[in-house]
Amino acid sequence: MSPTPMETLIHNVDLDRSMSSNVDDDELWDATTPWDTQIEVPAQLIEDVDDNVKAHFPEGTEIKSIHPHGSSYWSRTAEIQTVISGEPVSYFLKVSQNKFARKMFRGEYESQKAIYEVCPDFCPRPITWGVYQTVSDGYFFLSEFIDMVDELPDLHQYPQKVAQMHKKGLAPDGRYGFHVQDMCALLPMYVTKSDSWEDFFSKYMRHFMLAEKIGQGPASKELERLERIFFDRIIPRLCRPLETGGREIKPRLVHSDLWDGNSAIDAQTENPIIYDSSCFYGHNEYDLGVWRCPRHRAGTPYIEKYHEFFAKSAPEEDHEGRMLMYFLYVVQSNVLASGRGLLNRSFDTRASACWMGRDDFRTSMIDIMTELDRRFPETYEEWATARGEPVCPRKGSSVH
Question: Which SUPFAM superfamilies did the record assign (predicted)?
């Protein structure tokens, strides 16, 4: 009997950990729990500052107050106001109490740390993550507090900073993936290291295609047909030319979810700020797919401005196709309104995986894959032969 999508997904996540020592993960993800469930986090977790949080403040810090700040679907967030040596210092605290919290906050800390190390003025400084002393299953993420203006950063600054992050954020080991498993909402991401972008992206997409079926139910025959085309033709056709024929890309640090709600303006410096990252090392253009969404304020002008600072990958004629391919996946959930509501339609696999029972997400997936099928009817092999290039096999991954 063939395994169900749920069984396959659990197997893949477990296989990820057992085969690759470069992914630090000691937790088995229990995929039998729905990951779109709103987490009820007790308010008392941000009524006082836990001793394990206090331990990361400088010696002599006087705590003045802690109060709710901002909102989150899966956690509670607060500002901690302190005084040190007579100067006011504020911290941002995010807390949750559920079995996903450890993985969630560890991933957020490692992601934000990676961004901060290459662009320290582009995100709040991450301080630590950990478990509460007073609540055994209460976890927290702590960073510096930045007073932000909830507006889209300036066209002339924001794309340039994203390009700077990509240029400076080269993978330390030269491989695609990430060293810890981070989260998309409450759904663990695929981050196992690979030597090839095509190999990594294919497995990355298969992971979320399986999750999408768990979230939305069995695929129709048409969706199954389009998925076969996507993996057998579209990904090789658009990814393999990036790394063959004398062309080269390098794994670079990507935020992975640069929709409007994860960017703002520093109220003091007026510089662009990004947060809520789920980083990995990938193709830099992957981060631009979300800007292709017509319902987002960052659109084509931001993509064009970005490429003034970071040139399009070769072959350039495939750029629009790559944007459409990344658009299929990269947008997490277009806009989270207050509570459970979703303000706008989303257009991708990850949203369809994360938000169960939303048929419009699956419809959008089908529309995009249909368009990719129409635009790219030839295989990679046919494309390379027509250009007089050697036909290269797909590069595989290897465990280091």
Answer: Protein kinase-like (PK-like)
Distance between CA atoms of residues 383 and 361, nearest Å: 31
Same fold, 1-32+147-400 and 33-145: no
Cβ distance 104 to 123 under 8 Å? no
What letter would DSSP give residue 89?
E
What tokens were used for 391?
């036909």
* Tokens linked to 97: 């109490």
pLDDT band per the 50, 70, 90 thresholds, residue 392: very high
Q: How far apart are CA 178 and CA 210, in angstroms?
A: 20
Q: Which tokens in the block code for residue 120?
A: 């320290």
Which overall architecture, per CATH, does domain 1-32+147-400 show?
Alpha-Beta Complex (3.90)
CA dist., res. 58 & res. 76, Å (int)? 24
Q: Report residue 102 as tokens.
A: 């450890």
Q: Can you state the angle between helices 197-216 and 359-375, rounded to 10 degrees? A: 140
Tens-place pLDDT, residues 361-381: 678 888 899 999 999 999 999
The domain spans of the chain are: 1-32+147-400, 33-145
Give the C-alpha separation, 236 to 195, whole Å: 15
For residue 287, pLDDT over 60 is answered with: yes
State the Cα–Cα distance between residues 137 and 95, nearest whole angstrom. 10
Fold of 33-145: Phosphorylase Kinase; domain 1 (3.30.200)
Tell me what the pLDDT averaged over the chain comes to. Answer: 85
For residue range 88-115, list pLDDT tens digits in order: 999 999 999 987 899 999 999 999 999 9
